[in-house]
């Protein structure tokens, strides 16, 4: 009987004290539960030490493009649609590829840092610069030929024309991202997230003032938006490089090395798997914008979906912050040979993500009539966004967990498995239902 009760007690991770005390040998269960609660609490503190600055950094970095869209909405509906299409389709395509390729560093740098192989971090980052930089050269072509490509896939001619012009102006940002994405993973693996948050905060403040001055005050419109975005992107690159080259990373950065050109193929394979996993997720939203362009009143439809996607992405930055944190924790602990601690990190991050997703969904429902005017002066677009907000809130809650689980996969090096899941969920199930409806 005692064996049976002891087994029952072991299944309960957090049983009520009254239940535990009512079972023979319950004092051992209470001690076990207290230890688990303490472990949960310790891991929560470690996770949020990384997640809080990461969330702030991601919100600031995404706000750079979001703020540009907000100002564009006050310039005109065509301009807002053009920036939305360029950001979602052309830049979204390139961003997904390069961000995914750079995500290989989360696995390699994180596990190398956990295993105390600090010298490899700088070499991994340089390899990533080579691979992602070469990829950026190839991705220039969709930027250059954006207008005919958008027309070819059936987008509105006027929107395609302006989106194509804006895409050419945004080529400098493409190469800034090719340098910055590996830098971010390099610093994140060492838990140096506070300095990234500080740089991102300064950038978003400057970008807001610069965008207002160029787009509205001086009346430069899309040209002003492109100038502000390019300047902000390159400022972050220069600031991050200055921090790394100053010697604050210790043995993790010992200068440029010829070793960066060794074993490139193995690095490409992991980078490709990471890119597929990320792209399948990000391109889903690009596809939504494209299909919206086929509807009647394309400008209003694209603007409304773009605003909802923008809000959705802003809220996802919280989950993506946890993605970064749990990826660091899992990769570091696996590199150090502590799989049990890595599992606890996954549990804590998943529970936290669901709570935050519920909170953000409620905020959207409460303020559903307040945020649409921030993005556009068009009453028609505001009405459509107001009607879509309940669905948007449900999406935010349901999808709050997915980025966190992706972070676990990246930390463990399981990118290929997640890619298969994304194909099935996004493209074989979700997108066909959306198009059919």
Automatic annotation (TrEMBL):
Primary site of residence: membrane
Keyword entries, A-Z: Membrane, Transmembrane, Transmembrane helix
Pfam families: MatE
Record carries keyword Chaperone: no
One Gene Ontology cellular component annotation held by this UniProt entry: vacuolar membrane
The organism's place on the tree of life at top rank: Eukaryota
Stretch forming the signal peptide: none
Membrane topology: Multi-pass membrane protein
Subcellular location: Membrane
GO biological process: xenobiotic detoxification by transmembrane export across the plasma membrane
Transmembrane segments: 47-68, 88-108, 129-150, 162-181, 193-214, 220-243, 264-284, 304-326, 347-367
A GO term, aspect molecular function: transmembrane transporter activity
Family: Belongs to the multi antimicrobial extrusion (MATE) (TC 2.A.66.1) family.
Protein name: Protein DETOXIFICATION 30-like
